[in-house]
Automatic annotation (TrEMBL):
Signal peptide positions (record): 1-21
SUPFAM superfamilies with a match to the protein in the record: Lysozyme-like (SSF53955), PGBD-like (SSF47090)
Protein name in the entry: Lytic murein transglycosylase, putative
Superkingdom classification of source: Bacteria
Glycosyltransferase keyword on record: yes
EC annotation from Swiss-Prot or TrEMBL: 2.4.-.-
Domain Transglycosylase SLT: residue ranges: 26-315
The Peptidoglycan binding-like domain, residue ranges: 335-390
Gene Ontology terms for molecular function: glycosyltransferase activity; peptidoglycan lytic transglycosylase activity
GO biological process, one term: peptidoglycan catabolic process
Keyword list, A-Z: Glycosyltransferase, Signal, Transferase
Length: 390
């Protein structure tokens, strides 16, 4: 899911007022310009006319694009919402059901089945909810919108190419609000580049063929740089006197160095063939994980830190890891407090990106620096105490 969103868990509490995008000017004029550009790229005029004939601007897509409240939840709450025993057991059952497909994926790409099963679970509840937004309308609406036109304009032309191949119907193809299609939610350009016909029917059918969807997802991860046969995430224990300022995905060390610092695996053994980082999603009193290079590939699928940690952790559960030690984290901040914190951090010269109430990577780094300055445990977990001291 290249756009980095959760399609099926969004809360649709939308305002009834229309959201107008000024950057693209008149939507009808924008569509005409897109048609002209498509013809200039070599697409047949008649094909272009048919593709764009029913395109409409989607207000529901614009509202969904602006509603990202799910990502404001802390890791433990977020993961509790997405991970259940039923979802875990179903993933393990599907792993056995599609054993031959996963064996083929392992031979071709070296991507573990747990990783793909976790994405399959989170993106579409194992294919049961793939989204009901008209994909063509969603892509053109977002290409016209101000926020990420450079991402979505190429996706419109990729959808047009899929249409010309017979693998996309602009009137009936549906998916997530951000234009992703199929069981593991891939954008049209990713389908063109990494779509795989794993069931041998001559088409890439990501909505109806689990083998096609899983193999295509694996091909995309490999294209992102997935390292064959290597782990991605592992729960660890840290000594009480650990230097918390050394944690965070922006700090990497050889695994042997972490071991020398007292880091031990909660189950199994540390993978010593790579460098790694240590992350504390909810501070030093919560769960701790070591992240290997493959963990960083997750951010090419979804940029939300909370989503990535949850998906990576669920993948380890599917493959037999024990449930994490949740610990007893200090109380965090609500959305309004987080925005206040981000505003204060900006005033102190930190780059936290957008003030959105979401604890992203840049906010975590800024929090850690301020914790060090104030003599607090520098674990990148913002608390009311930190907010008060700022």
């Amino acid at each position: 899911m290249r756009l980095k969103t959760l399609a099926f868990v969004l809360c649709f509490a939308f305002s009834p007022l229309p959201l107008l995008a000024a950057c693209g000017g008149s939507f009808n004029n924008f569509v005409q310009n897109m048609k002209a550009e498509a013809v200039s790229k070599g697409h047949a005029p008649a094909s272009v006319d048919r593709f764009f004939s029913g395109i409409r601007q989607s207000q529901s897509v614009l509202r969904a694009d602006r509603d990202q409240g799910m990502f404001q939840r802390p890791f433990l709450d977020f993961s509790r919402n997405l991970i259940s025993d039923a979802r875990l057991s179903k993933g393990q059952r599907l792993g056995r059901e599609y054993d031959a497909v996963f064996d083929s994926i392992d031979r071709r790409y070296g991507v573990s089945r747990g990783v793909l099963l976790a994405f399959w679970a989170f993106e579409t509840a194992y294919g049961t909810y793939q989204g009901d937004f008209n994909t063509a309308n969603a892509l053109v609406t977002l290409a016209h919108d101000c926020r990420r036109p450079d991402l979505f304009r190429p996706q419109v032309f990729a959808a047009l190419e899929l249409y010309e191949m017979g693998d996309f119907d602009p009137k009936t193809t549906t998916g997530a609000w951000a234009g992703e299609i199929g069981m593991v939610q891939m954008l049209p350009r990713d389908i063109l580049e990494n779509g795989q016909d794993a069931d041998g029917d001559g088409h890439v059918r990501l909505k109806t063929s689990a083998p096609d969807a899983l193999m295509s997802g694996a091909a995309m991860l490999a294209d992102f740089g997935w390292r064959r046969g290597e782990p991605w995430l592992q729960e660890v224990r840290l000594p009480d006197n650990f230097d918390w300022s050394q944690t965070g995905i922006h700090i990497t060390k050889p695994v042997s160095t972490w071991a020398d610092m007292g880091v031990t695996a909660r189950s199994g053994n540390l993978f010593r063939g790579a460098t790694a980082s240590l992350i504390l999603p909810q501070g030093h009193k919560g769960p701790a994980f070591i992240t290997y290079p493959n963990f960083n590939i997750y951010f090419d699928w979804n940029q939300s830190f909370t989503y990535v940690v949850t998906a990576a952790y669920f993948a380890t559960l599917i493959e037999g890891a024990p449930k994490m030690d949740r610990g007893a984290p200090d109380k965090g901040l609500n959305a309004e407090q987080m925005k206040a914190l981000q505003t204060k951090l900006q005033a102190r010269g930190h780059d936290v990106g957008k003030v959105d109430g979401i604890l992203g990577a840049r906010t975590r780094i800024a929090v850690q620096l301020e914790q060090q300055r104030l003599g607090l445990p520098a674990d990148a977990w913002p608390t009311p105490a930190l907010l008060g001291k700022l």
